[in-house]
Amino acid sequence: MEFEAFAERVDGIEAESGDIETIERVAALFETADAELPVVARFVQGRVFPAWSSRTLDIGPSLCYTAIARAAGPNVSADDIEARLADRGEIGAVAASYEFGDQQGLAAFGGGSISGLTVDDVDTDLRALAAADGSGSQDRKVDILFGLFRQCSRLEARYLARLVLGEMRIGVGEGTVRDAICEAFDQLPEAVARALQVTNDYGEVAAVAREEGQAGLDGLELDIGRPVQSMLAQAGTAAEALDSWEEAAAEVKFDGARVQIHVEAGEDGGLGEVSIYSRNMDDVTAALPDIVDVVRQSVTEPCILDGEVVAVDDAGDPLPFQHVLRRFRRKHDVDRMVEEVTLRLHAFDCLRAGSEGLLERPLVDRHRRLEALVTDDEAVADLLLSDDPDELAAFEAEALEAGHEGIMLKNPQSTYSPGDRGQNWLKRKPDVETVDLVVTGGEWGEGRRASFLGTFLLSVREPETNGYRTIGKVATGITDEKLAELTELLEPHITAESGQTVDIQPSVVFEVGYEEIQPSPTYSSGYALRFPRFVAVRPDKSPADCETVDRIERLAESQ
């Protein structure tokens, strides 16, 4: 498929306002794709790599602006791109406003794109860009992107720029792609949904649906080495749990970092490579050699485990989450940090044991398999089954006394649903309620804080449009030292400035405390947080993990 044809189809999708019509257009795009279908299914979501992959292009706005400027001509600078961005509002419109080098020459022969740039060409070059590493890698990335833009028509440039920065903005989210796969290849929604859960790869599922139908979809299983989304919890109480289930399964809620552990089979029949992934499915194995050692010494067969790593003091008591962060994504001085911050593994679920996938088995069965394959009792979280509110309350009090956050309440008969935040897992915390919000803007401070971002605009996710809606600003609960850290973290993601106000590419998630959620016409979500307070940065979460508009609405209604 030529990239021009892809861009034309995507342009039509962006112009469509109806959900059903959008699905139909995406389905039609899939039907026209040939061998490029897996790439097309990812590109339409603004992805180059499968959702399970931790690979990224690692090219920020400034490098993208530099490449566009070079392709636009010798009299255009990155500053010109930024100025035009402030006027036009998004990078696709800016890229489409230029006639690029090679296209200027081709225009003499009738105009339009006749370069023959294909979807596969773009995918190949972007993967080469992502692989660039070491000395000179930034220049290499710009060179590759410059070469692509030079071949682009205005329409192709619009969507290439958006794709590179992960901002397609065409109203196509994961649900749209899922439904389009069903429609394009006449597959049952439940079969496609299950296949997506176990593979976390929309491109693969689209291709299997087309080539092999339901039998192929049903045959897809969890693969060791390919992480899936974590099952999530929502706030709840023991009373709510026992009203819904005959009994509740209770676990300690640890103040740590979520991990998914993959243990491969070895060539000699023993255990092979151990890989550890964060909640965002980033590979954090190198930062956690001590956890790898625990797994190697205690796991008896290949498996996929879900759990949490917690920092502990010399007495083995839990330390706050911030201590985990000192270890979790460490790339340098790992051995020294292992000595300084001790981590403990608490595995609480088993997604695969040996060759058997366990997602559809009840929680109690999965936990029994977990206990059977992990010989270190300290590495396995205890599970209490009870229908007694007093017993659950005592379990919670014991967890809090030990320094943990609270407890988890789970439906003992529930299956494991990757990425789902349903009614089967409830988190019970006595502390102030918090929400995870993505930073989409900010304001420079004044006086002694003039060099820092002092106010942060917060947004929630709108899955239907793959976009974000504002919910408020936070400026309290932040020391000068922390403001300096946050400014350093966020400044590379600034996409536009106007006076003291900046726009920030959605990339960093804040945990924010609040007293109440109120209706508000001021913010585009329709809600505002009363007395918002900064709690922490959540580097273990991506913008895709932040609260949705629907979730905020439910929280507001339940107050």
Write the layout of secondary structure elements.
Elements lengths: L2 H13 L3 H14 L4 H7 L17 H12 L5 H11 L2 H5 L5 H7 L11 H13 L5 H14 L3 H11 L9 H12 L3 H11 L2 H18 L14 E2 L2 H7 L3 E6 L3 E9 L5 E8 L10 H10 L4 E10 L8 H8 L5 H7 L1 E12 L2 E2 L5 H11 L10 E3 L2 H13 L4 E5 L14 E4 L5 E11 L8 E10 L4 E8 L5 H11 L3 E5 L2 E4 L4 E5 L2 E4 L7 E4 L2 E5 L11 H9 L2
Parallel strand pairs: 1-10
Antiparallel strand pairs: 2-8, 2-9, 3-4, 3-5, 5-6, 6-7, 9-10, 11-12, 11-15, 11-16, 12-13, 14-15, 16-19, 17-18
Word description of this protein:
It is a single chain. With 559 residues, the protein is α+β, with helices and mostly antiparallel strands. The protein folds into 3 domains: 47-164, DNA ligase, ATP-dependent, N-terminal domain (DNA ligase i, domain 1); 234-425, 2-Layer Sandwich (D-amino Acid Aminotransferase, Chain A, domain 1), CATH 3.30.470; 434-557, OB fold (Dihydrolipoamide Acetyltransferase, E2P). Helices cover 40% and strands 21% of the residues. The chain is built from 21 helices and 19 strands. The protein has helices spanning 3-15, 19-32, 37-43, 61-72, 78-88, 91-95, 101-107, 119-131, 137-150, 154-164, 174-185, 189-199, 202-219, 238-244, 289-298, 321-328, 334-340, 363-373, 389-401, 480-490, 549-557, and strands spanning 234-235, 248-253, 257-265, 271-278, 303-312, 342-353, 356-357, 384-386, 406-410, 425-428, 434-444, 453-462, 467-474, 494-498, 501-504, 509-513, 516-519, 527-530, 533-537. The strands form 4 sheets. Strands 11, 12, 13, 14, 15, 16 and 19 form a 7-stranded antiparallel sheet that branches. Strand 12 (453-462) and strand 13 (467-474) form a beta hairpin. Helix 1 runs antiparallel to helix 2 (19-32), helix 1 (3-15) crosses helix 10 (154-164) and helix 8 packs antiparallel against helix 9.
